[in-house]
Amino acid sequence: LIPASVSIGRSDSRLSIITGPNMGGKSTVMRMVALVVLLAQCGSFVPAKKASISLVDAIFTRVGASDNLSKGESTFLVEMKESAFILKNATAKSLIILDEIGRGTGTFDGMSLARAIAKYIAEKIGATALFATHYHSLTELADEYNVVKNFHMTVRELANGIQFLYQIAEGGSSRSFGVEVARLAGMPAEVIKSAEKILKEMERADRKMRFDQGS
Predict the structure, then answer these.
(1) Strands 128-132, 148-158: parallel, antiparallel or unpaired by DSSP?
(2) Distances (CA, A) of 31 to 96, 131, 144, 196, 210
């Protein structure tokens, strides 16, 4: 087990944007926070050396992927319905846990929805929220709102891959390390090499587009 210290809910970190690689521990940290808060609400001991936890009126979570095909509801529709329920019912005294919102649709659609949901929480609800995402553009919200703070799951880059450190630190992640995770999963070397080439081409195109827009 690797201990982790978490400080959220202050005036400068009501909404915490968490980035980092798959398998890096984003979901685990968020579940840990939700469970510790739930235990505290019950009057139970919590697995921590020290904890200062305020009362919450509810814990809302949108985690995992599931469909409801018997009612004609896709995975993404279920995700949106659950997210809508949270936005309509959460208050400033709630704890919200959101994991990879917007992943079930097109990149731009998903990114737009994720950003709009995060902005709504920051502007309208004011709840304490943890928002894990691979959409790195969401980290820009910290420049727009003083209640948003960026965190990332740490990773050590090695000559032949990466090592997950399972620690949360301040600041946004530079990238998602998806290709490295695919390599760990045993993806054929030819596929990895091709993916790395495509990724570099896409990153160059993105940088060029940003430069053109800036000029």
Answers:
(1) unpaired
(2) 11, 12, 27, 32, 36
Write down the residue that tokens 């949360």 correspond to. Answer: 168
| Residue 151 CA: distances (Å) to CA of 38, 85, 96, 117 | 22, 26, 16, 18
pLDDT (tens digit per residue) in 69-100 = 777 778 888 899 999 999 999 999 999 999 98
Are residues 192 and 179 in contact, defined by beta-carbon separation less than 8 angstroms? yes
DSSP letter at 73 equals B
Tokens 């009362």 belong to: 55
Q: Which long-range contacts (CB under 8 A, 24 or more apart) does 110-114 make?
A: 110/135, 111/135, 111/137, 111/138, 113/80, 114/138
Distance CA 44, CA 188 (A): 48
For residue 79, what are the contacts with CB-CB under 8 A and spacing of at least 6?
62, 65, 101, 104
Distance CA 98, CA 133 (A): 9
Residues with Cβ within 8 Å of 57's Cβ and at least 6 positions away in sequence, in order, are 91, 93, 94
Summarize pLDDT for 144-179 with one digit per residue, the tens.
Answer: 999 999 999 998 888 777 888 899 999 998 778 888
